[in-house]
Amino acid sequence: MSPETVPAVVVFAPVQRDAATLGQVIGEDGLRAETCADAASFYDALAGTPLFAVMTEEGVARCSLEDLSGILRRQPPWSDMPLLVLADADHRRIDNNRFVNLAEIGNVTLLTRPVARLSLVMALRSARRARQLQFAVRDQLAELANHAAQLASTVAERTRELQAEVAERRRAEQSLAEARRLESLGQLTGGIAHDFNNILQVVTGSETLLRMLLNPLPDQRVLRALQSIRRAADQGASLTQQLLAYARRQPLANVALDLRRQLHAVSDMMRHMLGPEVQLHLHIAPGLWPVLADPSQLDAALLNLAGNARDAMPHPGRLVLAARNRVLPDAALPEGAHLAGEFVEICVTDNGHGMSAETAQSAFEPFFTTKPFGQGTGLGLSQVYGFAVQSKGLAFIRREDSGTTVGILLPRSEEVLHAPAARPARTAHGIDGLHVLYVEDDPDVAEVTAIMLESLGASVTRADSADAAVRLDLSEVDAVLSDVMMPGELDGIGLARWLSAHHPRLPVVLTSGYVLEPERLQGLKVQFVRKPCAIAALADALIKALKHTVRN
């Protein structure tokens, strides 16, 4: 500690000669003396942080014991300031009780006068060393307090980080649990839809055969009954398609879409659905990227959203269909925080009554609906969710101040946009004379479908599994029609891959209402027909497969 920073020694000696002498001795010892003229200035100096204090008995006489006691008791915990008192050796002149009481409240050293110079210097040095030790303790306590504050700050910061980590982990666990729950629901609904599609295939096929057998129909009652069967089968097929969309178990015909053109086209259908009491506004950002998606499923998703919004809005209502480019992750779109890359965001926003948090959490579940009984299937939003996720995107619900926004994120397509190919003209007898190997494990579906193919002139060889089909002689077979979901080592997709390797010139058509892993169809040069399907759709698929094989 430099001399300039060493605190002064406070001196209170009312006798001028005593004050001068003490100041000289203190100065010669390298210290700085602060001489006080009266008790008030002495009190003020003591209230600071002096090195120590020296006073004569005349100074003691001019001080109040209570005032000194109060000042000394207000010292910080580390401080016990030394106080040197010089008094005459004549006991008759010393107030013994006063000095005894003073010693009880402070660190007092009593020196009798006359005092030898050396004794005074040694007493001053002793007081200085004691006080410097106290200052060292003060500095150490301050350093410890600083370390404690830093430690507390570090602990608080780490605690906040841990709390954030725990909260994030809980959110992740909840998201994982929700994803697993939705996946389980998807597997359940997909399995039900698969079995139901086979039933519907028998119904639609039998209805078609009845029309053929009864043609021309003489009785209008029979015709109306057949029409009712067809309508019911079509409704059932629509329901199963929505279930499979939620389960993400249907193959998508993904193509590069000009989204601006697609949205303008579907907006006409939306306006027709909404009616005159709901205004539809399009907000499509310029430079909209093309997306990779199934156009029919996109149209179905947007029409489902329009129907839900119409039912949720008062009349007149307002619906906004908006689209813009997004590069994720984007802080402005927290719902897509787990996605990365270039996407197009499509939002449908209504001005209806909105959703509660509980409703929004369950809205994507199949068969969940808040509509009165008989006014909704609860499959509209589940189809939207399944379509978006299977398209490698996302569907989300955002609660607005007034109304609800349902958004769909679809990945940007790098493919070149192509105009839709013209649909080939349907040929009623295009498969006449064709030898078809038909692979189907459900005997009822196999029987009805085989009869329909034979009614168009094709000859049919049946196999009840893909494993059985690969053991057959295929030299006389012109085309293979196979179900996808079958027991055994090979399913329909496995059979298609085996045929591609061993009979690459043999055209293949796959038909199913449920595909466990639709991505396995990628790269296969096959035609695909969704169950339940009409005989004309099967014939078209076989003709397309044959033409594709001839071109290659």
TrEMBL record:
<dbReference type="InterPro" id="IPR011006">
    <property type="entry name" value="CheY-like_superfamily"/>
</dbReference>
<feature type="domain" description="Response regulatory">
    <location>
        <begin position="435"/>
        <end position="546"/>
    </location>
</feature>
<dbReference type="InterPro" id="IPR003594">
    <property type="entry name" value="HATPase_dom"/>
</dbReference>
<dbReference type="InterPro" id="IPR003661">
    <property type="entry name" value="HisK_dim/P_dom"/>
</dbReference>
<feature type="domain" description="Histidine kinase">
    <location>
        <begin position="191"/>
        <end position="414"/>
    </location>
</feature>
<dbReference type="Pfam" id="PF02518">
    <property type="entry name" value="HATPase_c"/>
</dbReference>
<feature type="modified residue" description="4-aspartylphosphate">
    <location>
        <position position="483"/>
    </location>
</feature>
<dbReference type="InterPro" id="IPR036097">
    <property type="entry name" value="HisK_dim/P_sf"/>
</dbReference>
<dbReference type="InterPro" id="IPR036890">
    <property type="entry name" value="HATPase_C_sf"/>
</dbReference>
<dbReference type="InterPro" id="IPR001789">
    <property type="entry name" value="Sig_transdc_resp-reg_receiver"/>
</dbReference>
<dbReference type="Pfam" id="PF00072">
    <property type="entry name" value="Response_reg"/>
</dbReference>
<dbReference type="InterPro" id="IPR005467">
    <property type="entry name" value="His_kinase_dom"/>
</dbReference>
<keyword id="KW-0597">Phosphoprotein</keyword>
<dbReference type="InterPro" id="IPR004358">
    <property type="entry name" value="Sig_transdc_His_kin-like_C"/>
</dbReference>
<protein>
    <recommendedName>
        <fullName>histidine kinase</fullName>
        <ecNumber>2.7.13.3</ecNumber>
    </recommendedName>
</protein>
